[in-house]
Amino acid sequence: MSPPLSYLEFHLVFIVPPILLLGALAWWRDDAWLDRRSLSGLGILIGLAVVYTTPWTNVMIPEGVWWYGEGAVVERIWYTPVEEYLFFVLQPVVTALWLFQFLDVADRSLQIPLSHRVVGVLAGLAICLVGWLLLGTTSTYYLGSILFWAGPILAIQWGFGLTYLRDTWPIVTLGIAVPTLYLWVADGIAIGLGIWEISTTHTVGVSVLGLPLEEALFFLVTNVFIVQGIVMYVWVLERKHELVELASFNDRPAAYETD
């Protein structure tokens, strides 16, 4: 039996309207952060999302971790529906446009303590290790795959800017929380309608607000990627004079160096 909404219609009902609303608000509000810097950061993140997520979904789908309702998708590229690739683009847009409503840059140098960078990298790698261990059990396979897939990105982001993310935690937290909650609701509706289904064999059977734990975690970590990425990107651009000064210092002729 075909679901009442196709995957494409799901986008039109649940994803496109927030984009239009938030885009209009960002355009009209003078204090919204909608400029070349933020939009270029969004563009980079969309490209990375497509490249990094495509291999992962094309392993998960043939493994039977999730599947789609009869007639719910138009076409597939590899094992993944074109609507899923479209979601790789649309989710960052939704989350970024929400973040742009209150995005700001804190006055902190790019030179953060090395110990903070080490802690950030180790924390991300620890998540990756936990994921790898969970991959060995059928019921934890989906959970493990998310953690294993997310860990390297978190290690990079936390290793680069853990201190800055700590200092801007209200912006980061609000930027992550609202779109994550919205996508949890939308995902729960999609599952209820049969647009896609999640395997009970590959999941631990724990739910968050009626949503499988693994699905809730996926939307959480992907929004963490997006928000942290944009927050740090605009921070770097705001402090780019430090990079110029550092490059100038490194290029200084030896004759000008002091003993």
Report on this structure:
With 259 residues, the chain is mainly alpha-helical. The strands form 3 sheets. Strands 1-4 form a two-stranded antiparallel ribbon. Strands 2-3 form a two-stranded antiparallel ribbon. A two-stranded antiparallel sheet has the order 5-6. It has one domain (7-239). The protein has helices spanning 7-28, 36-63, 82-99, 114-134, 141-167, 169-193, 213-238, 240-250; strands at 66-68, 76-77, 80-81, 196-198, 207-208, 211-212. The chain contains 8 helices and 6 strands; from the N terminus they run ααβββααααβββαα. The longest helix is centred in the first third of the chain and has 28 residues, at 36-63. Mean pLDDT is 92; it is low at 254-259. A hairpin with a 2-residue loop joins strand 5 and strand 6 (211-212). Its main location: membrane. Keywords: Carotenoid biosynthesis, Isomerase, Membrane, Transferase, Transmembrane, Transmembrane helix. It is a multi-pass membrane protein. InterPro entries: Lycopene_cyclase_dom (IPR017825). One of its GO terms (molecular function) is intramolecular lyase activity.
